[in-house]
Write a structure and sequence with these properties.
Blueprint lengths: L2 H18 L2 E8 L9 H4 L7 H10 L6 E7 L22 E3 L4
Parallel strand pairs: 1-2, 2-3
Amino acid sequence: MTRSRTIFVSLLSGLAFLASTSVFAVTIVVTSAADSVTECAAFGTGQLCTLRDAILFSNGHPQPPPFSNLIQFNIPGGGVQTITLLSDLPAITTETVIDGYS
């Protein structure tokens, strides 16, 4: 194996290890395909929680290393759900994992 391949394999192994050792301090569950701000942005939960809410809540609650926040999805309805944005989403400013397959 060449040196560049060895470094690449080592890097991939390291990334896999980091992904498997993530510790999530806060989990926010997106339950709506709407693009609005609800009480979920302030409390991290509510009757409806949008992706925009989840990002705003996560940004407002940064975690110390090695912790991060987790955004998961549980939008009702069958099949693939689409979130149509009305404007750009806020920048993610804290360590956050978005699990689009949840």
